[in-house]
Amino acid sequence: MYLLVLFLPLLSAIISGFFGRKIGTKGAGVLTSSCITVSAIISCCIFYETTLNSSATYIKLWRWFDFELLTTPMGLQFDSLTSAMLVVITSVSALVHIYSTGYMSGDPHIPRFMSYLSFFTFLMVVLVTSDNYIQLFIGWEGVGLCSYLLINFWFTRIKANKAAIKAMLINRVGDIGLVLAMLMIFKEFGTLEFLTIDSLLGLNPRGENITIICLLLFLGAVGKSAQLGLHTWLPDAMEGPTPVSALIHAATMVTAGVFLIIRSGPLFEGSPLALTVVTICGALTAFFAATTGAVQNDLKKVIAYSTCSQLGYMVMACGISNYSTSLFHLINHGFFKALLFLSAGSVIHAVSDEQDMRKMGGLIKSIPLTYVLILIGSLSLAGFPYLTGFYSKDLILELTYDKYYIAFAFWLGSLSALLTAYYSMRLVYLTFIIETNSKREVFLGAHEPGLSITVPLVLLALGSIFVGYLAKEVALSNVIPPIVLGSIKIIPLALTLVGVDAAFKRGRLPVPPQLSGSFLGTKPKGGLSVYFYQSVYTFFNSAWQFNYVINHFIVKNIWKFGHLITYRVIDRGLLEIMGPRGVSRVLIKLTQKFSNLQSGLVFNYALIMIVFTTLFIYTGCQPH
Amino acid sequence: MYYEYLTIGIILFILGVLGIVLNRSNLIIMLMSIELMLLAISFSMTLFSVIIDSLIGQIFTIMVLTVAAAESAIGLAILVAYYRVRGSIAVKSLNLLRG
């Protein structure tokens, strides 16, 4: 049963990928969905056995690396962390599979799509179930590869290609961190298995090495979990189909970074410096993504930035050593973010593939069910009391406040909570409530999607409502709620309500005419305040100019370096001259000179012969 | 006591060498220079056979003379054949084979 959860997705990926032509579109959909559903049921059983009955399971499969010092067998480890992740991954993935059969219907390459989705799920399961870093790295790279394939699913679109390459490359920056961390771990501990490392930590290894290991591991997590600095791939990855965004960027792939931190928690505990860095980076990411998400106009990008923001929360929670809270938020986030993405897909489906929120509006009458679902998702995301998001998000903020030395993170997190509420409500408001801005035929053609789309959505909505409450006792059994003042406790909730209020107020009060120009991109007529407003808006809308700065100062320079130095100076320059071309040129010149010695004139030959005979005799006569 | 005669042999040999190297016009002079070199060698050998009181030098001298005669005969024959083909025996015109 424990192996089945791993191999069912692999089996469905192989069958759907290689025999997609045989089993057809419908067959691929049904097969992969049922395989992953069975896998989800099995992972629920695993959750029951390993977490609720607290009997962690370890399976050694076969010997893989077996050198003198490095012995790393293939092995699976099912503890409470793994099983919790498994439940989220497989259940969200199963729902996404079912959803995709409806959402992607009409696409000519459904078997391929389903195969990629299943393969992605398989690799993610490999990632979470591994009992050592190398096997984790297989899953880690594998989900990167699958994200490439899935973002690039419509490979005829140049933007999708670019986004996929960007995702792959930026992830690779983090992967280097993980590889280096693995090397350091091997150097420090002589093993790569989690259990051995955890037990060796009691021997008080050198602190600075642990710090380096943790910072490198965190670099890996930064790449995969889209933390500040390496986050730019996440919004671009929205080029893929919506179910892909839901799977990759809500429940599975981006959570791998947080999972890595949680899994390496014992290591991180040995390094206060690394924990501080983690907290600050997480808090900054949460704040950054929240400000950016608040002014995005693309429906999917708003959700993408909210993912980034929530990942910031999780990393922040890890940084204050509250790994179980972070995991709890991860689980909850998986449900409500998948719900948000998939309902956004439903909206996009309804308005004939329009993603710009400014061209929507008034959809509450045509797709009320989607409205209800997206409202549940948004409220849950905003941390509305008694919905899923509330249980983990408020707790994270309280715990951050409890750590007095990084109160900074608390205030950034609270501000992000305000902005989260603002942009999720803004999304609902612009899409569903205000007067419509879409074309007449699009608006009239808007309709509820079919059953295969609504059923997963409803299930996810139930998850978004109840999972937080149900899993609270299990996930937070060892978390002691901090003692904070009532006024502090109320702050996030109050800020959330302010955010919701602001989102609706902006609708009731029309934008002042002198400000409206800044939305349309025309030159503002107003004074300095309008200019200020416009520049701030542009700054946030372009994601703090991160793409510009990175492209301009890093990517462009590396490209230039690559072309000018490595290509022109070294490859085509030095190496050519000292290598084939230069040598051949010198040799040809030399041989020509030598062959010119044979002038064809007899007396010259005689002279040469005599000169050399004389030299020969002369050297022969020298005393040795 | 006969060592001063060795100078004659060496001078003759060098004259022969110079005759080949410095001569740029006539092929017959070249052949004559080769003969001169052979003669210088033969002279030196007879001289040494007297000095070391051994007959083998004189035997070699006779053989060298024989070889020289044969060599000059063949050389002159080649020269004549060459002259028949080219119509000139200038050394400078011998440069058909270049490196």
UniProtKB/TrEMBL annotation, chain A:
What positions does the domain NADH dehydrogenase subunit 5 C-terminal occupy? 423-503, 535-617
Which source organism does the UniProt entry give? Amphimedon compressa
Q: Which controlled-vocabulary keywords does the entry list?
A: Electron transport, Membrane, Mitochondrion, Mitochondrion inner membrane, NAD, Respiratory chain, Signal, Translocase, Transmembrane, Transmembrane helix, Transport, Ubiquinone
What protein am I looking at?
A: NADH-ubiquinone oxidoreductase chain 5
Catalytic activities: a ubiquinone + NADH + 5 H(+)(in) = a ubiquinol + NAD(+) + 4 H(+)(out)
List all membrane-crossing ranges.
30-49, 84-101, 113-130, 136-155, 176-197, 209-230, 242-262, 274-295, 302-324, 330-351, 363-384, 404-429, 450-471, 483-504, 601-619
Coarse class of the protein's main subcellular location: mitochondrion
What role is this protein assigned?
Core subunit of the mitochondrial membrane respiratory chain NADH dehydrogenase (Complex I) which catalyzes electron transfer from NADH through the respiratory chain, using ubiquinone as an electron acceptor. Essential for the catalytic activity and assembly of complex I.
**What membrane topology does the UniProt entry give?**
Multi-pass membrane protein
Q: Which family does it belong to?
A: Belongs to the complex I subunit 5 family.
UniProtKB/TrEMBL annotation, chain B:
Classify the main location.
Answer: mitochondrion
Subcellular location(s): the record lists: Mitochondrion membrane
Q: Where are the transmembrane segments?
A: 6-22, 29-52, 58-83
Q: Example GO molecular function term?
A: oxidoreductase activity, acting on NAD(P)H
Q: Name one GO cellular component term.
A: mitochondrial membrane
Topology relative to the lipid bilayer, per the entry, is: Multi-pass membrane protein
What superkingdom does the record give? Eukaryota
InterPro entries from the UniProt entry: NADH_UbQ_OxRdtase_chain4L/K, NUOK/Mnh_C1-like
What GO biological process term is on the record, naming one? ATP synthesis coupled electron transport
Q: Which Pfam families match?
A: Oxidored_q2
PANTHER family from the entry?
NADH-UBIQUINONE OXIDOREDUCTASE CHAIN 4L (PTHR11434:SF16), NADH-UBIQUINONE OXIDOREDUCTASE SUBUNIT ND4L (PTHR11434)
Indicate the family of this protein.
Belongs to the complex I subunit 4L family.
**Sorted alphabetically, which NCBIfam families does this protein's record hold?**
PRK05715.1-2 (NF004320), PRK05715.1-3 (NF004321), PRK05715.1-5 (NF004323)
Q: What is this protein called?
A: NADH-ubiquinone oxidoreductase chain 4L
Which organism does this record belong to?
Amphimedon compressa
